[in-house]
Amino acid sequence: MEKRGIGKIALLLSLGDGDIESLQKYYENKNYIIYRGQAGSMDSKKIIAAIETAASREDIIRENYHEEHALYHAIIEALSGYCRGQVLLGEVLRSAGLTFTIVRGTLVEDEPSSGNWIAVVLYGQIGSPRRGFEHEAIGMGIQPI
Asked: Is the pTM of this model over 0.85?
């Protein structure tokens, strides 16, 4: 099996329909820290806060500038992709309901020299706050710690 990058690992965990638990355990055994959660709002600040709170609560990041800053930029990068360039939701009458995945570990699987990184993937529905007027979207952010 080819070595996977942290982004592909996060994407597989976000998009997987099958046995996510076994895939998650496989990568946790390779020293990746993984968390999957859900968020939904018309306010991007609430989605950012939900991801930051989960990362802190699950000990994915510690309370220091470098780790918090890396997570923040990974979230903003992922939101930029998810929102297609404009990190705006309610301000432009859009809502989001998404699953987020946070992965922390080496940039490349089984290569400790690749350093410590964090990846955030957002996958779900975005669109008008009216039921049936939404569509799928995805965004990913990767930052070094």
From this structure: yes
